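Quick start: what a row looks like.
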Amino acid sequence: MSRSKSTVPALITCEHASNAVPARWRSLFAGSEAVLAGHRGWDPGALDVARALAAALEAPLLAGSATRLLIDLNRSAGHPRRFSEWTRSLPRRERDLIEREWWLPHWRAFASCIESAPGRLVHIACHSFTPVLDGRERRFDLGLLYDPARSVERHFARELSRRLKERFPDLATRMNQPYLGTANGIGQQHRRRFGADRLLTLELEISQALVDRSDWPRLAGELARVVAEAISDDAGYGVSCASA
């Protein structure tokens, strides 16, 4: 992807990039291979877009290297679903070890990137979602998750949505679906710590139906290009100039 480096500080994350189980805890998941391979175990395709986006922007990429069922990097400390049913009943010392080795480094690196950025940092978290959940079909392809109360996020999401619809007229884009951008997560938690002048955070949700397409590698690159250009252009919606 040929694109000059963005002058806007950016950070790309992919919390559910992998369904790997570290050797120490592999026995916990014996017989659960199908769950690990499915949408509960990881976000298929999300890392493809995250890597392409980070490369286009020459931005750092923070990606999880273990399944979310070990510990969910997109859940805050103390959240009841940070540990799954496979790890929730482990002794406290084991859960503390998992937190120290897998969860804490990701969150510390995230905060460090914001603190060291010269101005507002634009954070894009790449995720994917199952097109059918609990028997209900999700009839859209892309979701943009943001905080409507932050005008800079609202303007950026609208502009990005416009660009995505222009580039991909056959793909349906929805705002704050399949989840709310204000739901518990790494971006939402850091909004509490950093004002809108320091952090713009948005989650890009991609239907796994797209990932199953034969042209997914090309589509992943094009999706990343549209997002990267929206960040790099820093046009009238004001990624770097809006204050709230």
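That is the whole record. The longest strand covers residues 121-129. Strands lie at 10-14, 61-63, 121-129, 132-133, 136-137, 142-145, 173-175, 199-207.
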